[in-house]
Amino acid sequence: MHNKTVFRNGLRVVSERVAGAHTVALGIWVDVGSRDETADVNGTSHFVEHMFFKGTARRSAHQISRQLDSFGGMANAFTSKDTTCLHATVLVDKLPELIDLFADMFHHSRFADDEVERERQVILQEISMVEDIPEDQVHDLFEALFWGEHALARPVLGDPQVVSGMTGKRLHDYVGEMYDPGRIVISCAGKVDHGELCTLLEPLFGEFSGPPGGPGRSAPAAERPLRRRAVTKEIEQVQLMMGVKALEITAPERYALVLLNTILGGNMSSRLFQEIREKRGLAYSITSFIESYIDCGYLGISCGVGPRAVNDTMALINEQLQQVTLEKNLLADEMRHALDYAHGSLYLAAESLDSRMARNARNELYFGRDIPLNEVVDQFSKVRAADIADLAARLFSGPLCIVAMGPLTEIEVVWPS
Fold it and tell me: Sign (positive/negative) of CA torsion 188, 194, 197, 203?
């Protein structure tokens, strides 16, 4: 059973009582991420997330860690391009303590300069770590190329120069400027009574106020020039990242996009996996994926191949993209398999309280309502081969954005037409 309450300050609380559950998953979701930053503050959202755990007026950083561990469950936080989240899963009798702790972290973090200095070094190491993981680095390079001058091009972890100059005051001011209650959703799933949950939350979250949402978001330009880049790096493989503009997260065709992605490269029986790995042995793994936001998105393809196989791999990928634009090539058993895979993924995720909590929060943030699983299943079932082929024809009608990183130079690359 789903419930929703909006406090007087605009903060939203959504909950789902799950029969048979003995635990609860709670998340505080803020509609603020790296895409809300200007270049001179890139990385601030992520730095704030780290600092929530580094001490309040009532608790030291060590005391926060000890209390989170004492719950015996799972607690974490993350920052993405468009959201920041604190979340935990605990036994139901620990929920009041968790809410008190999260409220303290959320409202009363000190952003003390000595803690900022320590955490600065941690974040700089986190940024450096990306450069040691080629799969992560090529992703950042691709998004920088793909989104161009838009804020989505900048990394979530931030610019090292910005991080190096961060102060506690700047972090505190950023929270005051951006964390408007109207941009916050508190989501809970499990053994929870909605009325009791709101009784716990309202004194701690129902009265604070903030400026009205910070600066507005702008969508990236609809048309972008062809962008392709070869990055020379002495590693064993060439990391390939390719993509095209796709759909915003609320687009009516999103169900067709999910099935298209599944058929193309979403699992081991997908066309790209079978063609590139199973049939030709060119890559250990190849996958396609969807990145969607409220106003834009892209479909990406990622793999690692030997330097001599780069051009053949790109040509084969491009060939598969064109094949899927023809309705006659979408076989009935392929469609059924993609549909079964989508249904299975939905119901398997529903077994996790943390996944249910996250799904409910995202539905509220992006759609403003609960979207029942049976509605999603029904919408998937309505997708036809013609819908997928038409969408693919739209998406793949132009050239791909491509980054190839590894032991190669631009002159060695034959970009697909």
Answer: positive
Burial class (CB in 10 A: 0-12, 13-18, 19+), 412: middle
CA distance 155 to 22: 38
Cβ–Cβ under 8 Å, residues 291 and 298 = yes
Where exactly does CATH 3.30.830.10 map onto the chain?
2-205, 228-412
pLDDT of 214 > 70? The answer is: no
> Which residues are bridge partners to 2 per DSSP?
16
Pull the structure tokens for residue 357. 């909590």
- Residues constituting the chain: 417
Q: Which two tokens stand for residue 91?
A: 């036994």
List helix spans (H) across 109-167. Answer: 113-131, 134-147, 160-164
- Measure the CA–CA gap between 151 and 156, rounded to whole angstroms: 10
CB 140 within 8 A of CB 403: no
pLDDT in tens, 139-167: 999 999 999 999 999 999 999 999 999 99
The pTM of this model reads 0.95
As a whole number of angstroms, the distance between CA 158 and CA 69 comes to: 29
Written in H, E and C, the secondary structure of 337-402 is: HHHHHHHHHHHHHCCCHHHHHHHHHHHHHHHCCCCCHHHHHHHHHCCCHHHHHHHHHHHCCCCCEE
- Do residues 404 and 243 touch, judged by C-beta distance below 8 A? no
Helix (H, G, I), strand (E, B) or coil at 320: helix
Q: Rounded to whole angstroms, how far apart are CA atoms 195 and 208?
A: 20
| Residues classed as catalytic | 49
pLDDT, mean over the chain = 95
- Residue 156: which region, alpha, beta or left (left: phi > 0; alpha: psi -120 to 50)? alpha
**Angle, alpha carbons 414-328-343 (nearest 5°):** 95
- Pick among 3.40.449.10, 1.10.150.130, 3.30.9.10, 3.30.830.10: CATH of 2-205: 3.30.830.10
- Report, in angstroms and rounded to the nearest whole number, the Rg of the chain calculated over CA atoms: 23
Superfamily (CATH H level) for 228-412: Metalloenzyme, LuxS/M16 peptidase-like (3.30.830.10)
Buried b / exposed e across 43-76, counting CB within 10 Å, b at 16+? bbbbbbbbbbbbbbeebebeebeebbeebebebe
- Partnered with residue 78 across adjacent β-strands are 85
pLDDT confidence band for 1 (50 / 70 / 90): confident
Strands 184-190 and 12-17: parallel
